[in-house]
Design goal:
The protein has 258 residues and is mainly alpha-helical. The protein folds into three domains: 4-101, Four Helix Bundle (Hemerythrin (Met), subunit A), CATH 1.20.120; 108-157; 190-252, Winged helix-like DNA-binding domain superfamily/Winged helix DNA-binding domain (Arc Repressor Mutant, subunit A, Orthogonal Bundle), CATH 1.10.10. The chain contains twelve helices and two strands, in the order ααααααααββαααα. Strands 1-2 form a two-stranded antiparallel sheet. The two termini are 38 Å apart. InterPro entries: RNA_pol_sigma-70_dom (IPR014284), RNA_pol_sigma70 (IPR000943), RNA_pol_sigma70_r2 (IPR007627), RNA_pol_sigma70_r3 (IPR007624), RNA_pol_sigma70_r4 (IPR007630), RNA_pol_sigma_r2 (IPR013325), RNA_pol_sigma_r3/r4-like (IPR013324), WH-like_DNA-bd_sf (IPR036388). GO terms for molecular function: DNA binding; sigma factor activity.
Amino acid sequence: MPTTASNELKNEIWQLLREYEQSRSDTIRNKLVKLNFGLVRKEAHYWMNQCRENYDDLVQVGYLGLIRAIEKFEISKGHAFSSFAIPYIRGEIQHYLRDKGVTVRIPRRYLALQQQAIGVSRDLCEKYNRQPTDSELAAALAISLNEWQEIKLAWVNRSPLSLDVPVLDSEEGTTSLGELVPDPKYRSFQLAQEDQIRLQQALFELEKCTREVLECVFFQDLTQKQVAEHLGISVVTVSRRVKKGLGLLKKMMSVKED
């Protein structure tokens, strides 16, 4: 259960976010950056272990993502700030690594467990007649829930988000994430970076079942048949969720920002 100190910190952050939304004060923004340093530190540690980049450099890049999240956050939407900010921090670090040509490595143990999880997931789907939870998968693999979540994160993030990854929609041909952004011309480096972060945030806002299908297709480069086997659902369901997810992303991405 959350401690009193933890609740007090969350309340302080929430109050400062409310004040910043109205005043756009640099002083308040800097306070928010300091209070949320732990989010940046956690992401920097994760990526340092994945690619051996300098920790201080990753922290500095992560700070840029945190500042962007603070500037974009809207109290009225009701999101937890930490959950909202992480895709921005992660996106900024991923873009930095991609720009440097860094290859993110996945430990051999993680690769083996990821492959094992495909069969285990299928067996559990047949047993429970539904998709297994992360806790059930972790237990079946004889690992902790935390380690399984780390494996999922490593697999999804093994290469930075690309706007050009194609996906085949049986009804409408081939499309890509880049086609969902308002300006397909990418007039500047900054625009491409902004679009990637917005896409990551939009993915976060999708319901879990739809997001998982899109992550398998766009991040893991799986075919719809492979996605169906991996998630224990039918190919028809995968196709429907891809179409639904792309439609929702397109709608979210078409909303103009103030």
